[in-house]
TrEMBL record:
<dbReference type="GO" id="GO:0030126">
    <property type="term" value="C:COPI vesicle coat"/>
</dbReference>
<comment type="function">
    <text>The coatomer is a cytosolic protein complex that binds to dilysine motifs and reversibly associates with Golgi non-clathrin-coated vesicles, which further mediate biosynthetic protein transport from the ER, via the Golgi up to the trans Golgi network. Coatomer complex is required for budding from Golgi membranes, and is essential for the retrograde Golgi-to-ER transport of dilysine-tagged proteins.</text>
</comment>
<dbReference type="InterPro" id="IPR027059">
    <property type="entry name" value="Coatomer_dsu"/>
</dbReference>
<comment type="subunit">
    <text>Oligomeric complex that consists of at least the alpha, beta, beta', gamma, delta, epsilon and zeta subunits.</text>
</comment>
<dbReference type="GO" id="GO:0006890">
    <property type="term" value="P:retrograde vesicle-mediated transport, Golgi to endoplasmic reticulum"/>
</dbReference>
<comment type="similarity">
    <text>Belongs to the adaptor complexes medium subunit family. Delta-COP subfamily.</text>
</comment>
<keyword id="KW-0333">Golgi apparatus</keyword>
<dbReference type="InterPro" id="IPR022775">
    <property type="entry name" value="AP_mu_sigma_su"/>
</dbReference>
<feature type="region of interest" description="Disordered">
    <location>
        <begin position="154"/>
        <end position="230"/>
    </location>
</feature>
<dbReference type="InterPro" id="IPR036168">
    <property type="entry name" value="AP2_Mu_C_sf"/>
</dbReference>
<keyword id="KW-0931">ER-Golgi transport</keyword>
<keyword id="KW-0963">Cytoplasm</keyword>
<keyword id="KW-0968">Cytoplasmic vesicle</keyword>
<dbReference type="InterPro" id="IPR011012">
    <property type="entry name" value="Longin-like_dom_sf"/>
</dbReference>
<dbReference type="GO" id="GO:0015031">
    <property type="term" value="P:protein transport"/>
</dbReference>
<keyword id="KW-0472">Membrane</keyword>
<dbReference type="InterPro" id="IPR028565">
    <property type="entry name" value="MHD"/>
</dbReference>
Length: 512
């Protein structure tokens, strides 16, 4: 399916909103929309109509039309399915399907359209996922907000408790100061009040008071923190456990922090030049426990940062040796025709410089497949139930021997309450986290020299208890064969010194 544009138009062909997914001029899209009503036969109810070059797939929305413009080679069944999803999106944002309401919600509708189609191809999303993506709902944010409210409540309760203790302390101090003045004379009452410390928990009058100087409760020093709540970590753990008991999947902040640290540690610090380029790729993979790749997606981004004014007007050469069939997309301000013909990234207006001291994404790419041959690392897990215990054999294999993966961590869940697993054989290191019930198999480097490895352990449980298996790693070589070839000045075509860094990491890598 190649979708050229999606639009909501009137019955006369007037465009209310329109989103083009391929490069198309405004006059071209307006002409296509204006010719649409003329092609519809009077009194006939169809779902599509064709011309010599394009196909119109439409659905009435009261006084308006939801219209898709596709190529004639597009699959009509997929077109109709996509049209239904577009038509369901409109009522999600507009209470009344009217022109004024659609114009008011135009930006939200455009954002939703972009979640359905990317680069002219339908994304595998449903209405609930579109709503989640556009609202940017986050489990981590909800956990943070809940913990913050709990901490504020604890701080308020603690301050009230401290205030009550201070009031009680002042009352007891006053009473004791009056009694002491009857035995030692009225003149010494003020000094006695300063030299005596009252223990609020003391209930007997026979105990002698301490002679150290009285000091009020010490306030925290001015470090910018109001009160340090000792139970903050317990609050996080209890709230996360509550979310998990309700069926929510909450990522552990500590694991995310470890992954972030590992990612930074895997990339050596480099002396950045005035022109610095960062190539970042992340992979999202889901594979079956019995074998077979369910989905593999790689998203890449080339970011340019210039820290000196004299290098603002440059061009970047990119060498693309990838043969997997990736989809490339340049920034709207980049000369697309020049990139398509010469693989050179340069601004449309050569007189205009790149932004200074700003990370600018100039090129992004995407690759998606369900072919097992493209998996960088495969995981095989064989649980063998033997009575109440289970013997588990797990092995990895580096499918792409030209790659080097660093800080590889294979996390295998274990049954709750089963105790520590007994590891009989392991190539590399392992660590058991009893709080999370996870056995972590750690390998500093996986490359052609150790492209296979295995681990064997025993623990009480069933075969299904050891899934899903999560894998994390980083690499200094990109998955897609894309690299920066040169950086040159636009005016005199002279070479410009630049620095670059590459990172490829597993964003979500699961064996389900």
């Amino acid at each position: 399916m190649v979708l050229l544009a999606a639009a909501v138009c009137s019955k006369t062909g007037k465009a209310i909103i329109s989103r083009q997914f391929v490069e198309m001029t405004r006059s071209r899209i307006e002409g296509l929309l204006a010719s649409f009503p003329k092609l519809m036969g009077s009194g006939k109810q169809h779902t599509f109509v064709e011309t010599e070059s394009v196909r119109y797939v439409y659905q009435p929305l009261e006084k308006l039309y939801m219209l898709l413009i596709t190529t004639k080679a597009s699959n009509i069944l997929e077109d109709l399915e996509t049209l239904r999803l577009f038509a369901r999106v409109i009522p999600e944002y507009c209470k009344n399907v009217e022109e004024s309401e659609i114009i008011e919600q135009a930006f939200q509708l455009i954002f939703a359209f972009d979640e359905i189609v990317a680069l002219g191809y339908r994304e595998n999303v449903n209405l609930a996922q579109i709503r989640t993506f556009t609202e940017m709902d986050s489990h981590d944010e909800r956990v943070f907000e809940a913990v913050r409210k709990t901490q504020e409540k604890d701080a308020l309760d603690k301050s009230r408790h401290k205030a009550k203790e201070l009031d009680k302390l002042k009352q007891q101090q006053g009473k004791m100061g009056i009694k002491s003045s009857t035995g030692f004379g009225g003149g010494g009452m003020g000094n006695i009040g300063k030299d005596i410390v009252i223990n609020p928990s003391t209930t007997t009058t026979s105990e002698k008071p301490k002679t150290t100087a009285f000091t009020a409760p010490i306030r925290p020093s001015g470090t910018g923190k109001a009160l340090k709540i000792g139970g903050g970590k317990r609050d996080v753990d209890s709230f996360v456990d509550q979310l998990k008991s309700e069926g929510e999947q909450v990522a552990s902040p500590t694991s995310q922090q470890k992954q972030s640290v590992a990612t930074k540690a895997a990339i050596p610090a480099s002396n950045q030049e005035s022109v610095h380029l960062q190539l970042e790729e992340k992979i999202v993979l889901a594979a079956g426990r019995e074998g077979g790749l369910q989905n593999l997606e790689v998203h890449g981004l080339l970011t340019l940062r210039i820290s000196s004014d004299k290098y603002g007007r440059i061009k970047v050469g990119v060498r693309n040796k990838d043969e997997k069939g990736i989809q490339l997309q340049t920034h709207p301000n980049v000369d697309k025709k020049l990139f398509q013909s010469s693989s050179i990234i340069s601004l449309k207006n050569p007189e205009k410089p790149f932004p200074i001291n700003t990370d600018v994404g100039v090129l992004k790419w995407r690759f998606q497949t369900q072919d097992d041959a493209f998996m960088p690392l495969s995981i095989n897990c064989w649980p063998n139930e033997a009575g109440s215990k289970c013997d588990v054999n797990i092995e990895y294999e580096l499918e792409r021997t030209d790659m080097e993966l660093n800080d590889v961590v294979i996390s295998i869940p274990t049954p709750s309450g089963s105790g520590s697993p007994v590891v009989n054989d392991c190539e590399g290191e392992y660590k058991y986290d009893s709080r999370k019930n996870v056995l972590e198999w750690k390998l500093p480097v996986v490359d052609a020299s150790n492209k296979t490895g295995s681990m064997e352990f025993s623990v009480a449980g069933r075969a299904n208890d050891f899934f899903p298996i999560n894998v994390s790693f980083v690499s200094k070589k990109p998955y897609c064969d894309i690299e920066v070839d040169f950086v040159k000045d636009v005016d005199d075509d002279s070479d410009v010194r630049y620095s670059s860094e590459v990172v490829f990491y597993a964003d979500k890598y699961e064996i389900l």
